[in-house]
Each structure stands twice: as C-alpha cells, then as structure tokens.
Prior knowledge:
homodimer
Amino acid sequence: xxPKPNQATQPLxxxxxxxxxxxxxxxxxxxxEIRRRFRNDHDWTLPRFDVMSALSRAPDGxxxxxxxxxxxxxxGNVTGIVDKLTEEDLALRVAVPGDRxxxxxxxxxxxxxxxxxxxxxxxxxxxxxxGKLDExxxxxxxxxxxRMNETLNDEKKNAN
Amino acid sequence: xxPKPNQATQPLxxxxxxxxxxxxxxxxxxxxEIRRRFRNDHDWTLPRFDVMSALSRAPDGxxxxxxxxxxxxxxGNVTGIVDKLTEEDLALRVAVPGDRxxxxxxxxxxxxxxxxxxxxxxxxxxxxxxGKLDExxxxxxxxxxxRMNETLNDEKKNAN
DNA sequence: CTTAAATATTTCAAGCTTGAAATCTTGATG
DNA sequence: CATCAAGATTTCAAGCTTGAAATATTTAAG
Lengths: 160, 160
C-alpha cells in the first residue's frame, strides 16, 4: 500500500509549492482567456495592449527604456512592438531635444481611440472573471501578494 | 486641481482590475525568477522542466495529447519540446499497442535523474520565494484562488 | 581635447507558443 | 467492404521573448 499523502501534515515547503502551482495556474488561465478575447473579439494582442496602456498614461510620451522598465520586458522586445504600432500609425517616435540617442514614443490620436475601446473591454472582462471576489477578498489577497513581492524586492536589493 | 483618486471608494470593477494587475505582476516576477535560475544554475528551461515533471508522475508514460491537456499547452508545442528531450536522451517515444496513431512518452533513466535534481532545486526556490507566507496565508489564498478559478471553469462548461 | 565608461537603442539568433492545415489511423455506419 | 467522421500527432508560419552583441551618443576624467 502506498500511503495516501495527507496534505494537512505536509512540510511547509510542499504547501508553498502547491500554492505556487495554483497561483500560476490561476494567472495563466486568466491571461490566456484575455489573450483569446483580444485575438477573437478585437484581432489584437496582449503585448501591444500593454505597451499602449503604458503610453496612454504618459501624454508626453515615454522613452523606449522607460516602457521596457515599466513592463519589465527586454529592450529588444519593446523595439519590435513599437515598430508594429508605428507601422499601423497607432504610435510615433519623436526625437528628444537634448539627446540624440533616445526617442520618445507617443500614441497617435488613432492609437488613443483604439486603446480607449480596448481598455473598456479589458476592464469588463476582468470584472467578469474576478466576479466572485468581493471587497474583502480583494483587500486580503492584495495584502498577501504584497507580502510575497517583498521577498523578491529584498533579493533584488541584496543582489548588488 | 485634478482630484486624487481615492482607491477605497473606487468601483468594484476597478478594484478587481488592480488585483488582477498585482496578481499578474506577482506571478510574472516569480516565474521570471524561476526561469532565470533554471537558465543560469542548470542551463535548462521551464517548459522542459514542466514536461518532465508531468512525465515523472506517470511511470507508464503519457500520450502527447495527455501532456498537452495536463500542461494546458498546444499539441504542436508538446511535439517540439518532446523532440528536444528525445534528442538529449532524456525521454523516449514508445508505440501504443492497439493504436498506431498515438505514442507514449516516457522519461529515460537519465531523464529521471536529471528531473530529480531539478525538482529538488525548484522546490527550494519556491520555498525561499514564498518564505514570508505561513500556513494561514497559504490556506487562505488557496481558497480564494479556487473561487477565482470557478468562474473560468463555469464559463468553459457553458461554452458548449 | 581625448579617452573611456555609461546610456539608449537596435539587431539578431534561439527558443517558446499558438492556431490552422496536413497526415495518418481508428471506429462507426450502411 | 466502403465511406466518412473523429482522433492523435506533426508541420508550419507568425508572433512574442530573451540575452548578447553591435551602434551611436553622451558624460566624466584626465
């Protein structure tokens, strides 16, 4: 007989692992669903939405490196996505007066309109998907997620 | 004066959106850190680890389609990863007696050993990263994540 | 001014991922 | 048996992502 693992008495490390797997599953399911809806309902992609979302909060534009930091993705990645947005006339690159290395990226009017529509749909999707969580659930999870992130922030600091 | 947004009185949909963004951030940070450690410490990748992990729990092997369902990734994706594992003699494809369409994938002895080492390291990393969460935090978050997933499961059922 | 280090961005190869089309096999129906 | 839908897998093009190398520019030091 193989002994049936009793989860209640598992070592803490195993419980943390199970939590991580569940957290990852939840966030993957949601992210995939959002991707799918962007693709099917708007013929659009999540990475492009994310870049436009960052730009929408910066009317004066963002430098490539700023987008990269905000979204925590590589510089090369941003180059590719902004290229696509620019080709479709949704964003444009403008020179930075004092620095010929850098460029500011800004949404065009067309880009602003498109983002407004996508953004409204996106918020509604999330509201639907997280519909079973009330104010209390949200407050609680936020606090615990913050506590999780602390560890990673600590590590980043100590990695000097 | 632009009114400062008071998060406490935001509509519930906005709060849900903020929670989603925080959840996504947390899980992305952790996943990226795990990827980085696999890459730097073991010259390995997370997708390959995931496939080996599924295989390790099935001594008799898994069909390609079963791996695909377990990991919730496309069939074509699994083909590519299993090809890589096979090339490195970590897994092998064996014929299914009654069905010439399908194949069973199994870890080799070499694959088992490699996975055991990676798996131990992986659990320790997660234990470290989630180190600030105790039994209570874990139980609580598990319950709420389950409740979130219900919505997506419901939708999948209704999507018949 | 010259040089060297630091910054900002792009290019590129390699890997992951997907959805759709293609191939081959099985099973059910007549 | 013949046909045809369903199933398992592979192939493929397109897109995202990364880290490292390459370019170009700025800044700091001497």
